[in-house]
Amino acid sequence: MSAKFCPKCGNELKEGAKFCPKCGAQIVQNVQPNGANTNGVQNQNIIPNQSAEQAKNYAKDFFKWFWSSVKHPSLSGKASNKYFGLTSFVASAVFAILSIMLITSKINGAIDLASSGLGGDTASSLASIFQNLVSDGAGKVELFSVLMIVAFVALAYGFRAFAVAGTGEKTDFFEFINKLAAYTNISVMLSAIMFLFLLIGGLIALPLNMFIFLFVVINDLIGFTYAIIDGQNSNKFDKLYVLLLAHLSLIIVFFIVFIKSLTA
User: Fold this and answer.
1) Where in the sequence is the signal peptide annotated (predicted)?
2) Are 227 and 183 in contact (CB under 8 A)?
3) CA-to-CA distance for 57 and 132, rounded, in angstroms?
4) What is the DSSP letter of 45?
5) 165 phi and psi angles, rounded to 5 deg
6) What b/e sequence results for 66-93 when a residue is b if at least 16 CB atoms lie within 10 Å of its CB, and e otherwise?
C-alpha cells in the first residue's frame, strides 16, 4: 500500500487519517461510488481548518502588536484588529483572577498545614472557618478587580469623548480601546510576571509582587491620562480640568466598587 501524505505540509499520514497530526488540516478522501480507487490510488483533497487558521493568525498578529506596544507604547500605531485592545483587558482580568485564586490556594494550604500540626477537632474547625473567610474574601477581590477594569475602560472612553467635544473628532470605541490598551500593555505583561512569581515562589513572592503592582498602578494611571488628552482637544474644555474630573471620577468609582464588592 502506497504511503499517503498531507497535501498541505507533506507530512506522512496514517491509513484512514482524517486530520494531519502536524498542521491540523482536514483530509477528505474522495472514493468512487463503487468503492474503487481511481488508478488504484485514493485521491485526497484538503479543506483548510478555517477556525484554527483564523485563531492562529489572530494570536500571531495580536502578540506582534502587543510586543510593539510594550516597546513603544506611544508609537505602536493603529492595531490591525479592532478587538486587540479588548483582548488585552480580558487578559489583564484573567491574570488578576488567576493570581487571586493562586494566593487563596496557597493560604488555605498553609492553614491546612498548621491545622495538621496542631491536631484535634478544634484546630480543624478553626482552620475550616479561616479557609471560608479567605475564600469569601478572595471572591470579593476578584469581583472588585474585574469591575475596576471595566470602570477604567468606560471612564477613559467617556472622558476622551468629553475632551474632544466640539472638534468634530469621532471617538470610535474599539479604536480608542486599542489605543488605551497600547498605553497600558506593560501592566498586562507585569501582571503575567507577577502570576509566574506566585506560581514558582508561592507566598514568598508576595512582597516582590506588591512592589511590581505599584508600577502597574502607576503605568495604568499614566496610560489613562495620556489616552484622554492625546491629540486634538476641544477648545471648550481645558485639558487640566478634563483630567481633574476624570481622575476624581476614577477615585469615586473606586470607592463605590470597593464598597459594593464588600457587600456582594
Assistant:
1) none
2) yes
3) 43
4) E
5) -60, 135
6) bebbeeebeebeebeeeebbbbbbebbb
67 band by pLDDT with thresholds 50, 70 and 90? very high
**Alpha helices (runs of H) in the chain, residue ranges in sequence order:** 50-71, 84-118, 121-163, 173-201, 206-229, 239-263
Residues in the chain: 264
139 Cβ contact list (under 8 Å, min separation 6): none
Residue 180, C-alpha cell as written in the block: 488605551
The span from the first CA to the last CA of the chain, in angstroms, equals 67
Question: Is 194:212 a contact under the CB 8 Å cutoff?
Answer: yes
Residues 25, 46 contacting (CB under 8 angstroms): yes
In whole angstroms, give the CA distance from residue 192 to residue 28: 41
Cβ-contact 99, 194 below 8 angstroms: yes
Amino acid at 95: F
Cβ pair 115, 125 in contact under 8 A: no
Q: What is the pTM of this model?
A: 0.75
